[in-house]
Amino acid sequence: MNTEPVHGTYSLEKRGNLIVCFYSEGFNLAGVKAITNDILALAEDLDLWTLYQKPDSTAGIVHNAIKAMMDGYVRFQNAGCVAAAIQENSIFVRAGTSHRPHTLKMPIKIDKSEEELLLWLQAQLSVNESINRASA
User: Fold this and answer.
1) CA-closest candidate to residue 51, choices 130, 103, 116, 125
2) Mind listing the pLDDT tens digit for each residue in 120-129?
3) To the nearest 5 percent, what fractions of the chain are helix, strand and coil?
4) How far, in Å, CA of 136 to CA of 130, rounded?
5) 49, burial (CB in 10 Å: exposed 0-12, middle 13-18, buried 19+)
């Protein structure tokens, strides 16, 4: 069996309904799959949640892993993620913009301000919680 080694370094934190992902270095396909699966495992007991991604300046992705990354956002959406925010610390944070699948309806915001992104994520969560209560 020929398995690709995982490239890319990351750590995850769960803060209530917020999953925080710190990551660095270049991610290959195996790295994207690993981080996606670990985020989903961390969020599995949450009905609704948001994702905050905080790359450092070394973070990157190889071209053949971009589709898997975008498919990961669809998987997050299907698992209850209502919004994702990415702090703009790396030139690669917009790599998936032109590869957004039509099934991905979840908003993704990219900005340099951590404070703005966290406030936006909280607002997205509140709106979706209100919608869920109203339809229950």
Assistant:
1) 125
2) 999 999 988 8
3) 40, 25, 30
4) 10
5) buried
